[in-house]
Structures are given as C-alpha cells and as structure tokens.
Write a structure and sequence with these properties.
The complex is a heterodimer of chains A (362) and B (297). Chain A is an alpha+beta fold and 362 residues long. Helices cover 23% and strands 35% of the residues of chain A. Classes of the chains: A alpha+beta (362), B mainly alpha (297).
C-alpha cells in the first residue's frame, strides 16, 4: 500500500457499445480527474455497468476510445491494465484463504514470498481484518468478504479502482458503515475511483462527482449538491431524491425570474429555468423538504392554502400529503420536526410556501 | 408457556396437539424413507449377504474359495489387469471428457443443447447393441478398414479389435458420458465472475484456468472419475466381444464360473474380493476429492 500517490486520470471519448438491437452505451464522453471519486448512477439497464466493464477491459467498445493517463488502453487485455476492481458479489476465490486471495494479484506479478506476506499483512490492517488470514471466504460475514475483496483490489497499487455495486448485498446499517469506510480508505490512498450504483443515497454520500446515466447517455455530471439542487432535466430530478412535479408552461421571463403557469391556471415564480422559452411545456419541480409551513404573520413568494390529507411521522421528519385548495394539486412535504410543540393534524387547512430559488423549471 | 397458551388458557390441549403434529411429521419422514430403504434391502443388502455366505459356506464354514483365488497367480493377474484397464479407461475418459465438459459449460445455450443431446443420445441404445456396432466398424472387413483401403491409406487391414485398442474404444464410448455429466455440472456451478476477477487481478487466461477454473472443477473430475472407474471395473460384454485373449476382466471369469462351471462358491468369492477392493477406493477418493477439503467447509 503506497499512500499519497496520485491516481490516474481517465478519459472516455465517445464510448459506444451495442448488444444486438440495444444501444447499451451511447457515445459517452467523460473526463475523470486523478484521485477523484466518481459515481455512475442510473437505473438498471442504463449502461453504467457496461461502461465500467469497458474500462476494465471485459467489453470491447464498438466505437470511441478510453485513455488512462492519456494512454490508449482499448486494445490492452484486462490483465495488463493495472486496474483494481470490486465485483458485485465480491468474487472471492472460494478455494483460497483470505491470505491467498489477497496475495493472488501479487503472485501473478511474481512478487517475492516475503514481500507478499508483508503487503498482505499491511492491507489486512488497513481493512481491520488482521488475524483472519487463514479463513476461507465462506467463513466470513458479508461485510468482511466485501472488505477482503477491496483489499485484494488495492494490494497491487492499481492506478484506478472500479467498483460495481459493491454494497448491494449488505443490509442497510452495514452498507452505510461500509460507504464511509470505502470513502476513507480510497481517500487515504488517493486512488481514482469509478463507482457504479443505482442507489442515489450511496451516490450522494460517497462521490466527489456523480454522472447520472439513462438509456446509455449521461444526463448530467456534477457534484452531489449540484445534481440534487440543480437538476438539468426531468429524469435527473425524478431519479435523485423525491420531487413534486407540476405540469405547465412558462408565461413570462424577466431577469432571473420566470413565471410558470400550471395546466390548472396557477402561477408560480422560480429563479431556475433550464433554457425553456416562453410558451414551451415543461415541469416545475419542487423538493418536498423545501416546502415549509408559513407561520402567522410571515409570507412566502409561492404560497398556497392546502388541506392536510395524510400525516406520517418518521421521527426526524414528518411526511405530509397535502392538496391545494384552489385546484386540487397534490404535493408531498417533508417537514423537519424541530419544534415538538408544533402539532400537525390531518384534515386541517394550513398555509404553505417555498422560495423562488427552491424550485426549478425543467 | 407461550403467549398463545396464556391467552387461551388450555395448555394441555395445545401441547397435546403440537405433540401429535410432531409425531405426524416424524411418520411422514419415515414413510418417505421406507421405499428407498426397502429397495436397498431387497435389491442390494440381501443379494450381497447371500453372496458373502455362498463364498464362505459349503455347507460348513470354509476359506477354500479364497485360498484358491490367491494360490493361483492367474486370478490375481486378472484382478490387477481389471484395475489397470479400468484406470486406463478412466484416464482416457478424463482427457476426452474434460474439454467437452468445459465447452459445454462455456458456450452459448444453443450449441450447449446440441452438444448435450450428442452426449446423452448414445444412452438410447443398449450396451450390447453398441458393442456389436463397434464390431461392424472395427472388424477386419469392417467399415473403417474398408474405407482406409479404398482411400489408399493402407494396403492390408489393420487389427482394430480383439485387442486392447478395441476394448478401450468400446468402453470409452460407453463410459464417456459418466465423466462428462458430473464434471459439467460442477463446472456450470462455477461463478464466471471469478474468472473475470482473476484476469482483472493480473492473471493471463492460461493462469486463470490453472489457478481458478481447474481447482474449482476438481470435485466434478473426482466424481466423474470415480463413476467411470467403478462402472469400468464390472465391465463384461465389451471386453468379451472386442478384447483379445489376454484382455480379460474379472467379471468375465466370474461369468465362466457361474454359467459354465456352476461353481457358485468360487464365483461369489471373486465378487466379494472385487467389492472389497472397490470399497478401499472410497477413503482414498474422500481424501483427495472430499468436499471438506475445498472451501473450508
């Protein structure tokens, strides 16, 4: 384990892959900086795993080019690429002990016996599994197997680490714990990580940047905050987190402010408009946690009287399903339970509102 | 007392029914076991014990059949020869069957189905018929010799049967599926991602095979080899029809004793000796291919 060495940069240029009639990856271009943790996020079948497999060398692109540190690697076989990879179901060798599993990439590189022992011990310490050398994979828990797979992918100091839904098989608590641990280890080693998942929470927690992929195309690339607060289109807003969508069109644009009219004739104002001209149909997207109850004596730029139809108390937040009194539009609200004396009752009418910067027109 | 009993306050009744349920479950298991047990006892345990008794009593207890067997060297020779031939056939089946099983486990499902049919199809014909078919093909004036002469490869017919070659061809053809099927079923269960992982970690395809695939397929190889070897030990028709004078297997001797000499005692003794030696193979097999050796189970 060499710490502090910069990971490699990766450049995908116009990457395309077709399986039969299905265009799995459609002209993806992406620049990944050295040492960056980037997540390919998308629903199943979106082409994110295929993209990863092309970087690893298990799928040959029909078109395009892959560069690692500006070197073309497309025609290098997987075993020459020096890329570490953690597979979905760990793929630990069942007939080898933990020690032999982790030592495998070193043995393939003809590293001396003593050196292998030393490096295996080091990496076992890093993943906090010292003393498990002689165990077989099936004698380990899911989380432990996951860590051994990670250690095996890191022990030969690869330039890049690829991870294909590595936490999918773990339960929620363990998954959250492993997310932080993986993040910590990869940051310590300063390695470039390409992480594939369909779990948006995981992507938001771990990534420096997220590339949202759908139908083989990148919908948006950006830091988690950017992706969440400033989605580029309907798919991103819908896929990441929860959103309320109101169908309608833009009726007026002045400076930064856009006026949006719903199909039922209500007018909303928003600061964020994704290049939609006046008259074009689109959606107004509002995150449920951005909508608040307007207290007496205060006001909000977008405010409406609503009837509370359903209340679900979740401890930290309360989820509310409300209906606008004016036109019956349904909205979801996530209300922070900061003030326990504030009582929300089903069937009551209240005033709600949100700021212009908290909604976007897509 | 569980909560159910607390609520209903009739513990005796409830524990009674649960006991009855347990008893019923037990009877069900026994019933399921009864039929196979019956089959094993009548078709297996009874004849073998009869055979053992026949070899030891005439009508008083005697070891003469066993003494006779070990006194005359040609009998031991046949026993050793039987093992030699069966081992050779097992090795040939392994060399031919392993690549086929590998192909089966890696190709697309369409080719796999076709191959599978080709592996299983010979089972639809009886051993005896297949052996006679080989006689038609391998004989002095058989199909193969005729073709080779017509095409000018040879001028006089080759001796293709009534020798070891003929026996091996006949036995391998019959026994090959017994090697392929267990080997294939283990290979099919190997997670293909393991091969990818190994390659990703720096192993060339050649080393992926030797370090990952081969060791993981060994339980299938062990199972297939054991099956072929044990079935091969008892072979009778094929070596009798396709073999030469020296290619004798012990089952042919047993047949002579029973059918021609009516010497049931000696035939039984030979069968018991064959069984005993075969049983010795099992611990050896277990030592090298027992599941416990792999994967730390």
């Amino acid at each position: 384990m060499e710490k502090g060495i910069k990971g490699a940069s990766i450049r995908l240029h116009n990457l395309t892959k077709q399986f039969g009639d299905v265009l799995a990856v459609n002209a993806i271009s992406l620049r990944i900086e050295p040492g960056e943790f980037i997540t390919l996020l998308g629903p199943s079948g979106s082409g994110k795993t295929t993209t990863l497999m092309m970087i690893a060398g298990f799928e040959i692109p029909d078109n395009g080019e892959i560069f690692i540190n500006d070197e073309k690697i497309m025609f290098k076989p997987p075993y020459k690429r020096e890329i570490g990879m953690v597979f979905q179901n760990y793929s630990l060798f069942p007939h080898m002990t933990v020690e032999r599993n982790i030592g495998f990439p070193l043995r393939m590189r003809k590293v001396g016996k003593k050196e292998i022992q030393k490096r295996v011990a080091e990496v076992l310490e890093l993943i906090k599994l010292s003393g498990y050398e002689k165990r077989f994979p099936r004698q380990l828990s899911g989380g432990q197997q996951q860590r051994v797979a990670l250690a095996r992918a890191l022990v030969f100091n690869p330039r890049v680490l690829l991870m294909d839904e590595p936490l999918g098989a773990l339960d929620k608590k363990l998954r959250e714990h492993m997310q932080l641990e993986i993040k910590q280890i990869t940051r310590l080693l300063n390695i470039t990580v390409v992480y594939v998942t369909h779990d948006q929470d995981e992507a938001l927690t771990m990534s420096d940047r997220i590339a949202v992929i759908n139908f083989g195309k990148i919908e948006q690339v950006g830091a988690p905050v950017e992706i969440y607060d400033n989605p580029k289109n309907f798919f991103v807003a819908d896929f990441i987190g929860e959103s309320n969508f109101i169908k309608g069109k833009i009726v007026e644009i002045s400076h930064q402010k856009s006026q949006f009219m719903s199909e039922t004739g209500l007018v909303f104002t928003s600061f964020i408009n994704r290049d939609k001209p006046i008259g074009e149909n689109g959606y107004l997207a509002i995150r449920p946690e951005k909508i608040s109850l307007v207290e007496q004596g205060q006001s909000s730029p977008n405010q409406f009287m609503v009837m509370i139809e359903e209340v679900a108390y979740l401890g930290d937040i309360t989820k509310l399903k409300v209906r606008l009194l004016k036109d019956g539009t349904e909205l979801l609200i996530k209300h922070q339970n900061k003030d326990s004396t504030q009582i929300i009752k089903m069937g009551e009418s209240v005033l709600i509102g949100w700021k212009e910067k908290d909604s976007c027109i897509l | 007392m569980n909560s159910y009993e607390k609520r209903f306050g009739e513990p005796e009744l409830i524990s009674l029914t649960s006991k009855a349920l347990q008893r019923r479950a037990k009877t069900k298991w026994l019933l399921l076991l009864a039929l196979p047990l019956l089959v094993l006892l009548t078709l297996y345990a009874y004849p073998i014990s009869r055979m053992l008794l026949l070899s030891l009593f005439d009508p008083e207890f005697t070891m003469k059949n066993y003494i006779h067997f070990f006194k005359i060297s040609s009998y031991s020779y046949v026993l050793v020869n039987t093992f030699k031939m069966s081992i050779s056939v097992t090795v040939i089946c392994l060399l031919l069957g392993y690549p086929i099983a590998y192909l089966l486990s890696t190709t697309s499902s369409r080719i796999k189905n076709l191959l599978m049919i080709m592996v299983i199809l010979p089972f639809f014909t009886a051993f005896l018929v297949r052996t006679y078919a080989w006689m038609v093909i391998l004989g002095r004036t058989g199909v193969l010799n005729q073709l080779l002469i017509n095409w000018g490869f040879i001028s006089s017919p080759l001796k293709l049967m009534h020798n070891l070659f003929g026996v091996y061809v006949g036995m391998v053809q019959i026994l090959l599926p017994f090697m392929i099927l267990p080997t294939y079923s283990v290979m099919a269960g190997i997670n293909k991602d393991l091969m990818k992982a190994a390659e990703n970690l720096g192993a060339t395809p050649f080393r992926v095979f030797f370090h990952i695939f081969l060791p993981l397929s060994l339980p299938g190889v062990g199972g297939g080899s054991l099956l072929v070897f044990i079935i091969g030990l008892g072979f009778f028709i094929t070596p009798a029809l396709l073999g030469g004078i020296s290619d004798v297997m012990i089952s042919m001797f047993i047949e002579t004793q029973v059918n021609q000499l009516l010497n049931w005692g000696f035939a039984s003794a030979m069968a018991v000796i064959l069984l005993a030696v075969t049983l010795l193979i099992f611990p050896i097999y277990n030592r090298f291919f027992g599941m416990g050796k792999f994967m730390g189970r």
